[in-house]
């Protein structure tokens, strides 16, 4: 099955045109203030740590359960 080309989307653009379009899009971006960015970054690290500790604990509990069921810990 052959895909039809969309007439509104060019198949290829020049590298210079691509860079111009990227710069136009980047000008539209609203960046958060520095303090908000630092706060959000800290929250991401904190939540990643909490999630990793949670999954480590769950893994340990499940692993111990499997060892008990299979009788490997005796």
3D architecture notes:
- This protein has about 70 residues and is mainly α.
- About 70% of the residues lie in helices and about 0% in strands.
- The protein contains two helices and no strands.
- It has helices at about 15-30, 35-70.
- The longest helix has about 35 residues, at about 35-70.
- The relative contact order is 0.05.
- The model has no long low-confidence stretch (mean pLDDT about 90).
Characteristic key phrases:
74 residues; 2 helices
List the helices and strands and how they pair.
Elements: H1 15-28, H2 34-70
Short synopsis of the structure:
The chain is mainly α.
The rough form would be described as elongated
Beta-strand content estimate: under 5%
Q: Enumerate how many helices there are, as a single number.
A: 2
Elements, N to C (H/E): HH
CA(first)-CA(last) distance: 61 Å
Beta strand count: 0
Query: Which spans of ≥5 residues are poorly predicted at pLDDT below 50?
Result: none
Round the Cα radius of gyration to an integer and report it: 26 Å
Helix content: 55-70%
Largest sheet: none
Structural class assignment:
mainly alpha
Oligomerization: single chain
- Mean pLDDT, rounded to whole units? 88
């Amino acid at each position: 099955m052959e895909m039809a080309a969309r007439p509104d989307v060019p198949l290829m653009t020049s590298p210079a045109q691509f860079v111009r379009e990227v710069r136009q899009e980047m000008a539209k971006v609203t960046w958060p203030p520095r303090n908000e960015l630092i706060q959000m970054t800290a929250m991401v690290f904190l939540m990643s740590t909490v999630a990793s500790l949670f999954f480590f604990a769950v893994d340990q509990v499940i692993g111990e359960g499997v060892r008990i069921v299979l009788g490997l810990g005796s």
